Amino acid sequence: MKQVRKPSHPGVFFKATILDERKISVTSAAVNLGVTRKALSEFVNGKSKCSDVMARRLAEATGTKVEFWINMQAKVSIWEAENMDIGVIIPFKPNCKKAS
Predict the structure, then answer these.
(1) For position 33, what pLDDT does the model report?
(2) Cα separation, 55 vs 50, whole angstroms
(3) Would you say 71 and 65 are in contact if contact means Cβ atoms under 8 Å apart?
(4) How far apart are CA 48 and CA 55, in angstroms?
(5) Which CA distances in Å does 11 have to 17, 21, 27, 36?
(6) What does the pLDDT look like over 57-70, one tens digit per residue?
(7) What average pLDDT does this structure show over 1-27?
């Protein structure tokens, strides 16, 4: 069943539930995570995907599992793929002729 509402981006979730609630700046969090401020800023603003490396860093820093972050990104990616406009696709039709 196709999901109607777009799932939360893991970066937006991280910003709201970790950074904002604990009053941690993006700059400070970037230092702690070992990433650039720009990379973390793009992530928490939903402009970049959660890579495997970022998922591992987030898991270590927050005491969560890598699986949590990867699954959250997968849900966003699936929703985006299901809802993108790809134009007209002509379905493949089975070949009715039999080889003799």
Answers:
(1) 98
(2) 6
(3) no
(4) 12
(5) 10, 14, 14, 14
(6) 999 999 999 999 99
(7) 94
How is residue 23 written in tokens?
């009053």
User: Which structural domains are found in the chain, ordered by start?
Assistant: 10-82 (1.10.260.40)
Query: Which residue's structure tokens are 């699954």?
Result: 71
Q: Please give the C-alpha separations between residue 8 and each of 3, 20, 61, 84, in angstroms, as whole numbers.
A: 12, 16, 20, 17
Phi, psi of 83 (to 5 degrees): -110, 5
Instruction: Determine contact, residues 37/27, Cβ cutoff 8 Å.
Output: yes
Looking at residue 58, its pLDDT comes to 98
Q: 43 near 54, Cβ under 8 Å?
A: yes
* 54: its two tokens: 């970022």
Q: Is the dihedral of CA 4, 1, 82, 93 positive or negative?
A: negative
CA-based end-to-end distance of the chain: 42
Cβ(73)–Cβ(49) under 8 Å?
Answer: yes
